[in-house]
Amino acid sequence: MQSQDVAQRPAPSSPAGPVVDVEQAEAALVEHYPRLVRLAYLVLPPGLGRSRRVVTAHALTQRALPRNRTPAPVIPAQSTGRDGDPGYALVRLQVLRTALEAGLPLRRRAWPKRSQLPPLLPQVWGLKLFPRSGGADELALDQRLSTLSGPARAAYALRGLERLSDDGVREVLTAAGVTDADGALLEAGGVPAQYGLLDSPEFDPCSLQARPTDLMRRRQHLKAALAAGAALLVCGALLGLPGEGWGPDGAAAPPYARNPAAQAALDPAKLTRVPPAAWQSSARTDFSVWPARGDLTGDSALLRRALAVWARPGEAVQVSATPGTLSGGPAGPPQLLYAGTVDAARVVILYDGLRIARYAEPKDGTQGAALDFARVDGAGRAEASAVVLGRTDGNVRYLTAPWVSKAGERDLLKPGSGAMELALTDGVTAPLASPALRSGPCTSWNVLQLADGKRTGLLSDLGELVPARLTSGRPGSPGEASGAAALRTWQPYACSLGSVRSAGVRSVNAWAFNEQPLPDASGSAAWVCTRAETWRGGGARVLAQFHTPGGRYGAVAAKAENVPACGARDPHVLAGVLWKSEAGTWYLLAAGSRRTASIRATGGISGSARGSLLTVPGEQGARAELKGTLRDGRSLGGLR
């Protein structure tokens, strides 16, 4: 329930300032419209729902325009570009006042204020609009703000968006009709001052996502809706709210398509189920030959909820997708890979030939669900070896391919320690520590080791549905990263995998492209290039890393994105680093791949050398431009 700190009587008058013309107020409203709408959205009560808050924020801001010349309040306008603008101060005060009124409870014997009713305008027919989702920090801040009263949210927004001092906030709140401005400031002070997050898409009602409303119902009742107006729309929305427990479609939105293909995609009886031994005789070895496993494959109600939520995720569903992955419903009946209980959730894994979809709902029957997507088109036997079933308490469980005979857990930072065997139950692994869930310093990097006959491969959890395959070797012909030499190559660079979390990574290859004697005769440094390929093709990330003897971790010398270096199309690379010897002397060390004929440095450090290595005395902080020439005469630029 919202606080009663907003007076139910006319707001106290504030000292009269300059008289503002309608044209001046309109100019201020148009110029600062996105900021005013964001302010209204933050102050409006969260109980309205994100879609109605968006429309209401726009309605209140548009209605803030005065009808005639009006004295502006003598209160701070603040912030560069708005200092001393009485038009802005006037419309901001009106937006704030009506947004606070919208959070007041309706009274039995009093007419509701216009701001307490659903807005007549603006309206977007056929679509539900809501801001784009932000990150975990934005979500946490939104949850903290939802616990505050309306005046306290207004105080927080005025501090963060408008950069007002506490005295300025107190004046604005008092002018807006708040009777206890000091209490609002005190309550707002209980929320961490993460004001920079208020500028994120999470709180931007002008940058929106759209989903369809109930198309069939709207078509059937169009004439009645025109006659009954807003009252019928409100009643329809109330009737569509979920009750206690799961309905037939669970957390899905109302149906909006009833063509045969869409209906078949929602029918659990039409799910594709592959026989357990199909992979042994199939020409394909990917997700299409996985059998359906789990203790709930016969639970038609669960499967229907999963299919319905996939087709029409409701507002209570948390949807995520790897970059480049579409989140729309399946074109036809998908394939069932798993349905069962995983820790505290019921999980369904589905595959439509292009994507893996994971549906999860709480086992205790409470409302809410999660829907995750990952792109897997073109997956081969190695990439289709495992899918994440769930993550709990820093651990991850996998569902493995039917051809996997043995599973283990290995720490990449300890290549000589061997792998710890993991129990496999109907293809489900025992939990293992997930590096994707860890915070703090990188002291270990646990990966999944899978055996398939004579082949052994490594997969790393990078925070997505499908783990990334780890390989080692020259681009174009890398091998599995499970051999002794490959494990030693990966050891100093394992923690660099954290830089490609949640990037839609398909595989990461580590290529030791050169070795360079150090000028102080303390040994040889290793040059390794790691390249992360994505499922969508673009967005590959390349790191050139430098590792000196005795060092635990490699140092990133250069990095780039969307370049062919270190890849199958261009298996060449050139990178350099400033290195300080134990005697305190600085050097520029540069190395290219083995087919580099010469290297030249220009700029802050000059020098050249024949071959694939360059060592030049330098100075701390100096910057050099590297250029190389390959044996076939082609030029090679330094990786940046």
Walk me through the structure.
This protein is of the alpha+beta class and 640 residues long. Helix content is 22%, strand content 28%. The strands form eight sheets. Strands 12, 13, 17, 18, 19, 20, 21, 22, 23 and 24 form a ten-stranded mixed β-sheet that branches. It has a five-stranded mixed β-sheet with strand order 5-9-8-7-6, with helices on one face. Strands 28-27-30-31 form a four-stranded antiparallel β-sheet, with no helix packed on it. Strand 18 (455-460) and strand 19 form a beta hairpin. The longest helix has 17 residues, at 86-102.
- What's the number of helices? 15
Share in β-strands: 25-35%
Q: Structural class of the helices, strands and pairings? A: alpha+beta
Outline, from the CA principal axes?
globular
Q: Could you describe the largest sheet, including whether it forms a barrel?
A: 10 strands, mixed
Share of helix among residues? Answer: 10-25%
Spans of 5+ residues with little confidence (pLDDT < 50)?
Answer: 1-15, 77-81, 230-244
Backbone CA Rg: 30 Å
Report, as a whole number of angstroms, the end-to-end distance.
55 Å
The mean pLDDT is 85
Task: Provide a compact summary of the structure.
The protein contains 15 helices and 31 strands. Helix 1 crosses helix 4.
Q: What's the layout of helices and strands?
A:
Blueprint: E1 16-20, H1 22-31, H2 33-43, H3 50-62, E2 70-73, H4 86-102, E3 127-131, H5 136-146, H6 150-160, H7 166-175, H8 181-188, E4 208-212, H9 215-220, H10 222-228, H11 230-239, H12 260-265, H13 278-281, H14 300-311, E5 317-321, E6 335-342, E7 345-351, E8 355-362, E9 369-375, E10 386-392, E11 395-400, E12 406-411, E13 420-422, E14 424-425, E15 428-429, E16 432-433, E17 446-452, E18 455-460, E19 468-472, E20 479-480, H15 484-490, E21 505-517, E22 524-534, E23 541-547, E24 555-561, E25 574-580, E26 586-592, E27 596-603, E28 607-610, E29 613-617, E30 624-630, E31 635-637
Parallel strand pairs: 5-9, 19-21
Antiparallel strand pairs: 1-2, 3-4, 6-7, 7-8, 8-9, 10-11, 11-16, 12-13, 12-17, 14-15, 17-18, 18-19, 19-20, 21-22, 22-23, 23-24, 25-26, 26-29, 27-28, 27-30, 30-31
Helix pairs in contact: 1-4, 2-3, 2-4, 6-7, 6-8
